[in-house]
């Protein structure tokens, strides 16, 4: 789960990581008040959950109140990569003497929290990783010992000359690591971490993602979620025990298991179709889940045909068939449905569905994909 | 033979008295897996269908000589259970549990390393050495004894692959679902090493998916160190970037971890990549000259 910069900075402030004075604003009027409160040049920053805000014109440096209002007018309501800007952060501007990148991330390869620091601050770290990987200092942190202050100093002495700066930066990093572990983050980035013209080290930007699996321990952070409409659907699905992601195609998919669900989508693409979604009904045998899944599929008006691909293991094919029959009872289905049942209780499942003339059956994944594509062409 | 589990596997089930734990304990026992103990704090002295229950893994190991553990413990308590098994001297832990916080897995990793404990999972279906032992939740009817080893990041997709193999007369030595989480125990390279050394494994199927660069690492390793034929399949070719496709680990970030890159890496290493699961048996037969 992602949170906004201003929310991440609120958490930073709680952990005594220095951030600029900031006010979050939903209207131009609020920006006027915020400017008066700060009473100095400010930066007006779009708060949307995507990268590249600066490039899109969502971040403006303003030396006067009028300029701040003009910026707010422009940015509020602006579209950045498909997201509408609904709020802006007004923060006191900083005179930057130098800038750095600092990041913590759960790393698959080292099976640890990986620290990354670079003198190339303020630019996208993925870019640096591609063009100048040697400019990123990486260190795997021992989870049993934690990040020691001397380790943090050692890292910063490689990119900073002044001992005073290093001490401040190391102090910030140790606090960031504590915050990271205590909040069950999956990513925490300060990009850039800056040294201002008064030799103070400040977190000028803040990015945090939380591990979805750990949100149950952190209701206060879970409540910070600001979901788009599509993400709301995904969350709603999760609450019903489904994993659902909406895409752009016209063939709805219902599959058990994430890997098989991906492979089913791939198969549709391979045969020239376009999947409308990823939908994993999970490993349980609850017919109700199938009813919910059908609701999600039919709710998407782009869907012209549905492919159900079940390889029964824990999931029993007869339960899926039962769920499907329940779904037919409570909703009108007027698009073609192709179903492929294999594995545990497949025979029983097929038996239950055999009197239903609406369903198109298939033996293999490939056959199912071909048939569902055919069905959309007829429709 | 097989890798990791065989007729000598003595299994302790952590969370045996729970709903899923109880159900799958019965299935494993029916397959012939030697289940010697269950662990459920506060229930020592009782038994479930003849399997003795202990308060701690340490007690179970002392009394029964258990060497392998399987976990059906809820996500919030699973990392603790993994650490307990490792400290009690269990050498192989299979963590079935889905949804364990990643930081928890990171925290127990040094404990596993210290004790020399291997882990499969978490968020995995477990593994099977057909004809010998089943540890996990795999549907046994699709497996058959033979000489193909299989490693997969997925559950049901594994079943799809295995079903293709079995119906085409190709049996398996050991099939392992390594789990769909970002941070997991044994990965491709460790398992490829074991299959390469196992004289009864003649070819290997590797079933990968988008996210991370483990497939690229595996490809590089195969090129240098694996003499047995390997065929692969990659799920998620149609997945958009930035979206978590069900598995927490199946996420394309900033253009890295795509199916395209993985397929390219495998092909460069001489590994044939199937476009659909149905091609896997054909590739295996070609590789083994059948």
Number of helical runs of chain A?
13
Give a count of the beta strands of chain A, DSSP E runs of length 2 or more: 19
Strand ordering within the main sheet of chain B: 3-4-2-1-5-6-7
Number of domains of chain B: 2
N-end to C-end Cα span of chain A: 38 Å
Largest sheet of chain A: 7 strands, antiparallel
- Rg of chain A is 26 Å
Structural class of chain A: alpha+beta
Shape of chain A: elongated
CATH superfamily of the largest domain in chain B: Succinyl-CoA synthetase domains
Class of the largest domain in chain B in CATH? Alpha Beta
Task: Lay out the secondary structure.
The complex is a heterodimer of chains A (379) and B (290).
Chain A lengths: L1 E2 L1 H10 L7 E4 L2 H11 L3 E5 L12 E4 L2 H11 L3 E2 L2 E2 L3 E5 L3 E12 L4 E7 L6 H7 L4 E6 L7 H9 L5 H21 L1 E12 L4 E3 L3 E4 L8 H4 L6 H11 L3 E4 L4 E5 L2 H13 L6 E4 L6 H13 L5 E8 L4 H14 L6 E7 L2 H8 L5 E3 L3 H14 L1
Parallel strand pairs in A: 15-17, 17-18, 18-19
Antiparallel strand pairs in A: 1-13, 2-7, 3-4, 3-7, 5-6, 8-9, 8-11, 9-10, 11-12, 11-13, 14-16
Chain B lengths: L9 E5 L4 H13 L2 E6 L7 E2 L2 E4 L2 H8 L3 E4 L3 H13 L4 E4 L6 H14 L2 E3 L5 E4 L3 E4 L8 E8 L3 H12 L4 E6 L10 H10 L5 E7 L4 H12 L4 E6 L23 H10 L3 E2 L6 H8 L3
Parallel strand pairs in B: 1-2, 1-5, 2-4, 5-6, 6-7, 10-11, 10-12, 12-13, 13-14
Antiparallel strand pairs in B: 3-4, 8-9, 8-11
């Amino acid at each position: 789960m992602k949170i906004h910069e201003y929310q991440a900075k609120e958490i930073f402030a709680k952990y005594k990581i220095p951030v600029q004075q900031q006010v979050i604003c939903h209207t131009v009027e609020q920006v006027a008040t915020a400017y008066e409160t700060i009473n100095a040049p400010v930066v007006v920053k779009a708060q949307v959950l995507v990268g590249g805000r600066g490039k899109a014109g969502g971040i403006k440096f303003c030396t006067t109140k009028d300029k701040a209002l003009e910026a707010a007018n422009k940015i509020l309501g602006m579209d950045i990569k498909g997201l509408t800007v609904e709020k802006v952060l007004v923060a006191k501007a900083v005179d930057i003497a130098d800038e750095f990148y600092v990041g913590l991330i759960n790393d698959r390869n080292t099976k640890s929290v990986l620290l990354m620091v670079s003198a190339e601050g303020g630019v996208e770290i993925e870019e640096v990783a591609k063009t100048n990987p040697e400019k990123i200092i990486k260190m795997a942190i021992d989870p049993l010992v934690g990040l020691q202050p001397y380790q943090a100093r050692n890292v910063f002495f490689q990119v900073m000359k002044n001992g005073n700066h290093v001490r401040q930066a190391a102090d910030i990093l140790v606090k960031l690591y504590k915050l990271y572990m205590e909040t069950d983050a999956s990513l925490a980035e300060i990009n850039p971490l800056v040294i201002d013209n008064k030799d103070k080290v400040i977190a000028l930007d803040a990015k945090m993602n939380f591990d979805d699996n750990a949100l149950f321990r952190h209701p206060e952070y879970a409540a910070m979620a600001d979901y788009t409409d599509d993400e709301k659907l995904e969350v709603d699905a999760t609450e019903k025990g489904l994993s659902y992601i909406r895409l752009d195609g016209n063939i709805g998919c219902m599959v058990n298991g994430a890997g098989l669900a991906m492979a089913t989508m791939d198969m549709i693409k391979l045969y020239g179709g376009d999947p409308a979604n990823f939908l994993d009904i999970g490993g349980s045998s609850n017919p109700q889940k199938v009813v919910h899944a059908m609701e999600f599929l039919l709710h998407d008006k782009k869907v012209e045909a549905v492919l159900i691909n079940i390889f029964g293991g824990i999931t029993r094919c007869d339960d899926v068939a039962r769920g499907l029959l329940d779904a037919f009872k409570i909703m009108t289905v007027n698009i073609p449905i192709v179903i492929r049942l294999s594995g545990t209780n497949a025979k029983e499942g097929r038996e239950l569905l055999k009197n239903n003339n609406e369903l198109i059956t298939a033996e293999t994944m490939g056959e199912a994909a071909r048939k569902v594509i055919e069905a959309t062409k007829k429709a | 033979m097989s890798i990791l589990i065989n007729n000598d596997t003595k299994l302790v089930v952590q969370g045996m008295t729970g709903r899923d734990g109880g159900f799958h304990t019965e299935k494993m026992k029916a397959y012939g897996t030697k289940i010697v103990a269950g662990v459920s704090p506060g229930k020592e002295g009782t038994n479930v269908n003849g399997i003795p229950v202990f308060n701690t893994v340490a007690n179970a190991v002392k009394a029964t000589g258990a060497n392998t553990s399987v976990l059906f413990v809820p996500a919030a308590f699973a990392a603790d259970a993994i650490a307990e098994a490792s400290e009690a001297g269990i050498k192989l832990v299979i963590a079935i549990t889905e949804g364990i916080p990643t930081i928890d897995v990171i925290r127990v990793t040094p404990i596993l390393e210290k004790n020399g404990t291997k882990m499969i999972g978490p968020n995995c279906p477990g593994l099977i050495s057909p004809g010998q032992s089943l540890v996990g939740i795999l549907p046994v009817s699709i497996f058959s004894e033979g000489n193909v080893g299989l490693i997969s990041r997925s559950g049901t997709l594994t079943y799809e692959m295995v079903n293709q193999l079995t119906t085409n007369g190709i049996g398996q030595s050991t099939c392992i679902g390594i789990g769909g989480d970002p941070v997991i125990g044994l990965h491709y390279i460790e398992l490829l090493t074991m299959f390469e050394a196992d004289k009864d494994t003649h070819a290997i199927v590797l079933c990968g998916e988008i996210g991370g660069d483990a497939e690229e690492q595996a490809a590089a390793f195969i090129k240098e160190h694996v003499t047995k034929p390997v065929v692969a399949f990659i799920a998620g070719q149609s997945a958009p970037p930035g979206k978590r496709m069900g598995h927490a680990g199946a996420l394309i970030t900033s253009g890295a971890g795509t199916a395209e890159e993985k397929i390219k890496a495998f092909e460069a290493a001489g590994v044939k990549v199937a476009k659909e699961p149905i091609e896997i048996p054909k590739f295996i037969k070609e590789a083994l000259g059948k």
